[in-house]
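Repro case for the chain-ordering regression, as requested:
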Amino acid sequence: METHAYLPRSPWARFRTDRRAMLCLSVLCLELVLVFLLPPLLGLEPNVSDMAAGFWAPPSRTHWLGTDDVGRDLLARLLCGGQVSLLIGLSAAAISAAIGVPLGLLAGYRRGAWEFWLMRLADVVQSFPSIVLVLCLVVLTGPSAGNIVLVLGLLGWTGIARLVYGNTLTVRDQEYIVAVRALGASRSLILRRNVLPNVISPVWCSIPLRAGRAILSESSLSFLGVGIRTPQASWGSLIQAAADLTVLTARPWAWLPPALCIILTVFCLAGIGDGLRDALDTRSRRLPI
Amino acid sequence: MGRYIRRRLITAVPVFFGITLLVFLMVNLAPGSITDLMGEGSAAGADKAALEAALGLDRPLPLRYAGWLGDLLRGDLGESYFYDRPVSRLIAQRVGPSLLLTGSGVALAVAIALPLGVLAAWKPRSPWDRLASALSLISYGVPGFFLCLAGIDLFSVTLGWLPTHGMYTFGTFTSLTDLLRHLVLPAGVVCISSLGELVKQTRAACLEALGQDYIVTARAKGLTEGGVMVRHAFRGSLVPVLTTILSHIPHILGGSVVVEQIFGWPGMGSLLFSGISQRDYPVVMGVTVVIALAVLLTNLLLDLVYGLADPRVRYGKG
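-- result from build under test --
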């Protein structure tokens, strides 16, 4: 313990001293505030064509990012697309964790048939490259924001469940668990109070990474035209315009901003994940990894 | 060893049925029947029933699953609704291009990632280490389709060096240089996409190996740092690195949906995409099940090889 006695005690206090992670967190929060507050504040309408400005207007004072193929304001669509992309990413990660954590705990703690069948189920899901299953399920159930969140969330549980499962296996036979069991605590109490707090930290680190991956999956689907579709917008569907070579080369203002938004968001989520890992895992502090 | 093989095979059986069941149910429980699409406008009542009977869709679900599974085990994946050809022949045509594209991309990524990962582990916080973490971040965070667009914008449109579409220039006969020119951009994107994971794993595995006692021994023997690094640390990290490389096999086989679709590469990924867009269910089922079963088989073989190579694996928790 003496090697890192200088570290602030709580994980949050340690996270706050991590400048890069805090920067990433602030940028992400700023993005969330902007995409939700700016449209009502600036009176932006993502689905109204401005006939005066015309189609594919370049950036101007009335349309800061220009207009699209039917004269809709691209800044409005960028912000509303951001709402969709960010919400899909964050809620898909939350759903995956909400399923993966309890299933991982059950498999690791009860072992036996639970372990066998839950892990085989994870094997089945992980036998498919994720984009393959996501693509098929989203197209078959009908592309909508709700279905994309459900598919991404429901398929993403395996990684988290395996993390929790592996840690639960090492925790379940430790003496303090045996001691609580001997005191007559119920299984659900042990799982909630004694096992869960000791296996949850890697999950916190993986949630931002998973959210980033969900945003990337959603944008790939929307880019391919099988995710979010017009009149709704997402960052991926806005970039779809660049599949047209004239848009790609002559109108970078139409597709570069959403692309940069995706990259910035995913980088920030990765930075937050790294910061959480350093803050929660005292072991990595001892080794300069 | 016999017991280990038997146990490993037993776990593969439910996964096999799980994969086939998932693929079957995914397609057959999807809302909207193929008959609605095929006979749009005209088909109603009797026509629709006849069409369903012709496609065998009027039988109960368990029977259809059993029939499909039986055909699958005999290597018969059914007929495509749209191409009027057996799905197995379509897949056979598309596997080659996917193997070429993703295989060369991943091979290039391995060739870059292994030395870079070792260098990054050898000299932490050096420029090599920074380059390695920058590449992992780009590989994780920049969407593949953006790399494709940027590549097309730069190399095809602005510089005019490389073609944007297909495997061969339309109308020409197959020539190797033409093929290579078409391969560069998509394979480059595949390479960048798989690079990050490989660099990260190589670096982590090398760092892990560097902490082992045999490294201390090797240093104590008076070996040079380079010799320790290459002959001991790198070799000690080969198993996890190899596992990461081999975990790319399903992607090599399944191709990359996004890259193949953007570059019009005639591989498994674009076959799957056109199949799902046209609701060509036999194609969708065939491609997904072939990819997943290939993964299952690869994992099985890997585990058996590890079991042979390392006795600790055999007696560990399965």
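Ordering looks correct now. Chain A touches chain B through 46 residues (CB under 8 Å).
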